[in-house]
Design a protein that fits this description.
This protein has 376 residues and is α/β, with parallel strands linked by helices. It has 2 domains: 5-59, Orthogonal Bundle (DNA polymerase, domain 1); 66-375, Aldolase class I (TIM Barrel, Alpha-Beta Barrel), CATH 3.20.20. The protein has 13 helices and 14 strands. It has helices at residues 10-19, 25-35, 50-59, 139-152, 157-160, 192-203, 223-230, 247-253, 256-259, 262-276, 297-307, 329-341, 362-371, and strands at residues 3-4, 60-61, 66-71, 78-83, 89-96, 109-112, 116-118, 133-136, 177-182, 215-219, 237-241, 280-286, 310-315, 346-348. A 10-stranded mixed beta sheet has the order 3-4-5-6-9-10-11-12-13-14, with helices on both faces. Strands 1-2 form a two-stranded parallel sheet. Strand 12, helix 11 and strand 13 form a beta-alpha-beta unit. Helix 7 (223-230) runs parallel beside helix 10. The two termini are 34 Å apart. Bound molecules: S-adenosyl-L-homocysteine and iron/sulfur cluster (SF4). S-adenosyl-L-homocysteine binds next to strand 10 and strand 12.
């Protein structure tokens, strides 16, 4: 299979174009078609000479994601289920920064992208890992999740004015996605090279134009890759899916903890901190009877203080077929209050109607099982 054009950086394209004896400005033209107009065919690149377009077509693919299902309305959280060329399914989730409580259009959005089809890490509570790992996404498949959502627009006021017939001309103000979180299906740091290549493209001014500080990578705790990430030049934010503040609790729900226990994870985070400054967040799903007891608060607070990490408490989203439940609201609030009393910066996600907010992986799981006629 041909490599996709959206897996290449500007420098790599320049090398290729130089080998073809093409002038450099052709690369700039190509990039504008890909990342400003976000076209989906070579023919659309009308200012590139036909022989060059043919050469590109012979040597690279230009893939798009096929939208299979969409859930949610504009100005609420929207979930996109995409079908890849091999018919594998992945999800992206678009979250408005200020949910339209008062009926106003929201123009700031965070996009949550997937990095793998399935996941090999098998956290006990997670839908993404239930059917195991299928494959890594290629860089273009990660990049294209952003471009495909941009093409659709938030379907609210800002973008609906720019019709497909008149693509925006280089005006980044027409972007939908301001923030990127790599928290969809898969373990991002287990697909390290493709992830980093995709993020270089999404971060570059000639590409996605999303600032590195507006990109958050979430990991279940792959200590060696956290160290590697610390040594990259780009300043990404890092979220650690902690979900337990002792090895005992983490071992129960996250098999990765047996490979990289807390001591190792914390040391890797300290290294990250040393290189990058205070850019750490702990994700902590509250699961009833598993990690929501007050005894977890003290070790959690100690870890958060040690690493200057902010704690995001997330009430567990029920996954069909799994026995876990979210604690009642009183328990959630008590946990939060106890953490704050320990001088930790913490937030609790309180929104209702979590059907659509369900974590990534769930829509895919339902659809896969539906498609294949299995229970679920
Ligand atoms: N593999 C990475 C990123 C993808 S998971 C990681 O584990 O960090 C993104 C986040 O969703 C993680 O914090 C994960 O623990 C959380 N998550 C998974 N299933 C969930 C569920 N059912 N309810 C709430 N959060 C969930
Ligand atoms: Fe994989 Fe993250 Fe789900 Fe764990 S929580 S199974 S690492 S996607």
């Amino acid at each position: 299979m041909l490599q996709d054009i959206k897996s290449l950086t500007r420098e790599e394209l320049e090398t290729q174009f130089a080998a073809w004896q093409q002038p450099k400005y052709r690369v700039a033209q190509l990039l504008e078609w890909l990342y400003v107009h976000r076209v989906t065919s070579w023919e659309a690149m009308t200012n590139l000479p036909k022989p060059l377009r043919e050469k590109l077509q012979e040597n690279f693919s230009l893939q798009t994601l096929e939208l299979l299902r969409k859930q949610g309305a504009p100005d609420t959280t929207q979930k996109f289920l995409w079908r890849l060329h091999d018919h594998a399914l992945i999800e992206s989730v678009l979250i408005p920064a200020n949910p339209a409580l008062y009926g106003e259009a929201s123009d700031r959005h965070t996009l949550c992208v997937s990095t793998q089809v399935g996941c090999a890490y098998g956290c006990k509570f997670c839908a993404s890992g239930l059917d195991g790992w299928k494959r890594n996404l290629t860089p273009d498949e990660i990049v294209e999740q952003v471009m495909a959502v941009e093409r659709l627009g938030p379907q609210s006021t800002v973008r609906s004015q720019s019709s497909a017939a008149q693509p925006p001309t280089g005006d980044c103000g027409l972007r939908t996605v301001d923030n990127l979180v790599v928290m969809g299906m898969g373990e991002p740091l287990a697909n390290y090279d493709h992830l980093l290549q995709a993020l270089r493209i999404l971060n570059a001014p000639w590409g996605g134009g999303i600032g590195a500080r507006k990109i958050t990578i979430s990991t279940s705790g792959l200590a060696p890759q956290i160290r590697r990430l610390a040594d990259e030049p780009l300043q990404f934010r890092l979220a650690i899916s902690l979900h337990g503040a002792t090895d005992e609790v983490r071992n129960k729900i996250m098999p990765v903890n047996r490979k990289y226990p807390l001591k190792e994870l914390v040391a890797a985070c300290e290294h990250y901190q040393g290189q990058k400054g205070r850019m750490l967040t702990f994700e902590y799903i509250l699961i009833a009877g598993v990690n929501d007891s007050i005894e977890q608060v003290r070790p959690l607070a100690a870890l958060a203080r040690k690493l200057f990490a902010k704690v995001n408490l997330i009430p567990y989203n029920k996954v069909e077929g799994l026995p876990w439940e979210r604690p009642d609201e009183e328990t959630q609030e008590k946990f939060l209050a106890a953490l704050e009393k320990q001088k930790v910066v913490a937030t609790l996600r309180r929104e209702k109607g979590h059907d659509i907010d369900a974590a990534c992986g769930q829509l895919r799981l339902k659809t896969e099982r539906g498609l294949h006629g299995a229970a679920g």
